């Protein structure tokens, strides 16, 4: 049963990551925490997310906003060490509770048509929050998704810029996790088993991306965020 759940998690999360640019860590991490120790779940997520980002770079490079990407990376440099400190010293249940509340609150703001102007300072701040969440719990997506949705960023630019950012942040976060939290054989064996499943999900996601219009894309966004936030709240108790 656990093996089947693992396969389904990786396959569905890979579809979402490829078709939307943000879905893998948001969907995979909470469920991987059911099957693995926190450090193992986060590191498996980082390895597979990195693989997907590398695989897609050639296809989405034309959609990258280089200016935003640069500011996100600069901001993340501040957030990365904060995240690993939180992971090492704060109870994981409290961490999930806080993130669940944050995700639900910000999703509610999005559904109420909350809007925010994009600025260079806010790009840096979102990069910092994303960096902290990546090393802290392996989920860089929520701050980026909420920010870009609030600024009505077109889906191709959102997908391209976030995937390029992930390529950087996943490498650094994985190194930080391995150095400070250690790693296990389970992480690398499980990641190796999941790679072919992720490839199938990526192929399916590429086909799906061609059929998703902007309105459907927003519905996907709300459903995934609400599901993740509610799940994190329930699991934290």
Quickly describe the structure.
The chain is mainly α and 237 residues long. The chain is built from 10 helices and no strands.
What does this structure look like?
It is built from ten helices and no strands. The chain has 237 residues and is mainly alpha-helical. The chain has one domain. It is globular. It starts with a helix and ends with a helix. The mean pLDDT is 82.
Element string (H = helix, E = strand):
HHHHHHHHHH
Strand tally, please?
A: 0
What overall form do the CA principal axes indicate? globular
Structural class comes to mainly alpha
Mean pLDDT rating: 82
Poorly predicted ranges: none
GO cellular component, one term: plasma membrane
Transmembrane segments: 42-60, 72-91, 97-114, 163-181, 187-209, 216-234
Protein name: Probable membrane transporter protein
Organism: Cytobacillus horneckiae
Keywords:
mainly alpha, 85% helix
Blueprint of the fold:
Blueprint: H1 2-20, H2 23-35, H3 38-60, H4 66-89, H5 92-111, H6 120-137, H7 141-150, H8 155-181, H9 185-209, H10 214-236
Helix pairs in contact: 1-2, 1-9, 2-3, 2-10, 3-8, 3-9, 4-6, 4-8, 5-7, 5-10, 6-7
């Amino acid at each position: 049963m656990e093996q089947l759940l693992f396969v389904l998690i990786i396959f569905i999360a890979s579809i979402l990551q490829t078709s939307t640019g943000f879905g893998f860590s948001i969907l995979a991490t909470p469920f991987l925490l059911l099957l693995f120790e926190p450090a193992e779940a986060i590191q498996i997520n980082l390895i597979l997310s990195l693989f997907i980002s590398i695989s897609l770079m050639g296809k989405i490079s034309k959609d990258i906003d280089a200016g935003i990407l640069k500011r996100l990376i600069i901001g993340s440099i501040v957030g990365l060490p904060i995240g690993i400190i939180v992971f090492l010293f704060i109870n994981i249940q409290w961490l999930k509770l806080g993130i669940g509340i944050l995700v639900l609150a910000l999703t509610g703001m999005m559904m109420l048509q909350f809007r925010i102007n994009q600025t260079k300072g806010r790009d840096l701040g979102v990069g910092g929050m994303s960096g902290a969440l990546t090393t802290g719990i392996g989920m860089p997506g929520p701050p980026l998704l909420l920010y870009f949705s609030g600024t009505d960023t077109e889906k191709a630019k959102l997908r391209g810029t976030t995937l390029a950012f992930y390529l950087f942040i996943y490498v650094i976060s994985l190194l930080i996790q391995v150095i400070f939290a250690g790693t296990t054989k389970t992480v690398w064996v499980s990641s190796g088993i999941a790679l072919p499943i992720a490839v199938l999900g990526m192929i399916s996601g590429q086909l799906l991306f061609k059929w998703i219009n902007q309105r459907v894309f927003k519905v996907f966004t709300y459903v995934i965020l609400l599901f993740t936030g509610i799940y994190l709240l329930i699991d934290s108790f």
